[in-house]
Design brief:
Length: 148
């Protein structure tokens, strides 16, 4: 019995994983070791050039906020990004997920050839729809079934 408990206790620290996926939206930059900012959904986003949508999933002992946020930041560093913005977090019983946009801040783009912010960031709301055109008034004409 004691051996079984010791075996379980020794395996427990390794019973967690964090998987990270990325979907490129622009050209990545060279990896770096600088700190990466995290900006949650709903907070103001500084002008930036989006590079990728990043998604982290923590399972087991890694199903917590620090592990998934660090997964997003590590992936942003590998892509040469300065921040992960519009981060949305979902916690479950056995998994925690976080998704956001890895970006290069405009303030850090100076001197980088060919780097310019996008005119419309992917996290910006879509433009408003045009107002519907009013239908032609048929109040003055008779209904089609009453015409002889």
């Amino acid at each position: 019995m004691k051996r079984a408990l010791l075996l379980i206790a020794s395996l427990a620290p390794g019973c967690g994983t964090t998987a990270v996926q990325r979907y490129l939206l622009g050209p990545p930059g060279p990896p770096h070791a600088r700190p990466v900012r995290t900006i949650l959904e709903g907070d103001p986003v500084p002008p930036a050039q989006p590079v990728a949508l990043v998604h982290a999933i923590g399972r087991g002992l890694n199903a917590d906020l620090p592990h998934v946020i660090e997964g997003l930041r590590d992936e942003a560093r590998r892509l040469g990004c300065d921040a992960v913005v519009q981060v949305r977090i979902a916690r479950g019983a056995a998994t925690t997920t976080a998704v956001g946009f890895a970006v290069r801040l405009v303030s850090h783009l100076e001197g980088v050839p060919g780097a310019a912010p996008m005119s419309t960031a992917p996290w910006a709301p879509p433009p408003p729809l045009a107002a519907p055109t009013p239908a032609a008034s048929t109040a003055d004409s008779p209904p089609p079934w009453s015409v002889h």
